């Protein structure tokens, strides 16, 4: 296996699977097929480090008319493929989801695309909407390394996983020894390949993180319109305030999954990074890794228009 941290080594393209990997043991995508879906449910489906927490909060704020009065976004928008401790049953997750109030819309987080998360087309039964967000994969993967570093020692010990299995001191070694060795490019490009044919379905909205960063208000209003929510002018002022980076950073503890696990999952500061666009090289992306990532990704998702949009955002191709 070549050393990707060396500029002299040539990277070989290898693709073990065209499907997103299952991830660590606390992620169990099959739980999602056991959920009793309700009319009005919203699924926030986003690949790793691509604006998931921000989108969860946007959906929550839009559906509630803007509120700062919550303890943990993961209580409001549960992660429906996640176990909080070893041995937790799938039924426990299903029961907690089923116990959510019947008189309010529910929203859920997933890192899964179809078919791991069930997709229900308009007119096929239950009325479920899907908010799907993508990010330039270079930015997503360089953000993934410090995010894993911010997982707590208690969390790794709880699951019996050594920190060294998932963490590396620099991005080139992380890409080589964690991402590429485990075929994790599929977590982004396989996700894209799975959702892309559904991008024009009436109950699916595609958003790109770069476009959301460039036009915060426009993106939030687009999500509200898609969900059929009509906040008042006063509510809009609150919604835009509570979905701003400044407010979320000031209230960081609400976004760190403090109630999701049996022990603390994350150290402070794990979720709310700046999330700047076009800054992947600052976080360790090299030209060689960039080329290798795109070559691998283009084999996982051969649609050139899809891959181009994944990197650049903008208007969706037909």
What does this protein structure show overall?
The chain is mainly α and 318 residues long. It contains 13 helices and 4 strands. It has a 4-stranded parallel beta sheet with strand order 2-1-3-4, with helices on both faces. Helix 1 packs across helix 9 (216-227) and helix 1 (52-64) packs antiparallel against helix 10. 39% of the residues are buried.
What spatial order of strands do you see in the largest sheet? 2-1-3-4
Number of helices: 13
Largest sheet: 4 strands, parallel
Look at the helices and sheets and give the structural class. Answer: mainly alpha
| Number of extended strands | 4
Helix content: 25-40%
What topology does this entry show?
Layout: E1 42-45, H1 52-64, H2 73-76, H3 90-98, E2 107-110, E3 129-134, H4 137-149, H5 153-159, H6 171-180, H7 186-195, E4 204-208, H8 209-214, H9 216-227, H10 233-242, H11 245-250, H12 287-300, H13 304-312
Parallel strand pairs: 1-2, 1-3, 3-4
């Amino acid at each position: 296996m070549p050393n990707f941290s060396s500029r002299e080594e040539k990277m070989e393209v290898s693709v073990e699977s065209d499907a997103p990997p299952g991830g660590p043991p606390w992620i169990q995508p099959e739980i999602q097929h056991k959920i009793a879906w309700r009319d009005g449910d919203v699924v926030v489906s986003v690949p790793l480090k691509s604006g998931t927490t921000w989108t969860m909060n946007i959906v929550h704020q839009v559906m509630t008319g803007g509120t700062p009065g919550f303890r943990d976004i993961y209580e409001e928008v549960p992660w429906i493929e996640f176990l909080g401790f070893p041995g937790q049953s799938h039924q426990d997750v299903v029961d907690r989801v089923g116990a959510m109030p019947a008189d309010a819309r529910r929203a859920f987080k997933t890192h899964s695309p179809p078919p791991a998360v069930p997709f229900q087309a308009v007119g096929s039964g239950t009325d479920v909407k899907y908010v799907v967000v993508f990010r330039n994969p270079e930015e997503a993967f360089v953000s993934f390394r410090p995010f894993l570093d911010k997982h707590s020692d208690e969390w790794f010990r709880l699951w019996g996983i050594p920190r060294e299995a998932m963490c590396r001191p620099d991005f080139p070694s992380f890409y080589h020894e964690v991402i590429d060795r485990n075929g994790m490019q599929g977590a982004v490009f396989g996700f894209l390949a799975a959702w892309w044919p559904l991008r024009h379905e009436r109950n699916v909205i595609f958003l790109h993180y770069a476009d959301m960063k460039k036009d915060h208000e426009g993106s939030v209003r687009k999500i509200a319109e898609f969900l059929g929510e009509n906040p008042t002018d006063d509510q809009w002022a609150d919604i835009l305030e509570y979905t701003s980076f400044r407010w979320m950073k000031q209230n960081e503890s609400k976004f760190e999954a403090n109630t999701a696990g049996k022990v603390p999952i994350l150290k402070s500061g794990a979720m709310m990074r700046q999330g700047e666009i076009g800054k992947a090289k600052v976080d360790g992306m090299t030209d060689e890794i960039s080329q290798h990532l795109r070559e691998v990704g283009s084999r996982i998702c051969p649609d050139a228009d899809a891959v181009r949009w994944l990197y650049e955002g903008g208007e969706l191709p037909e």
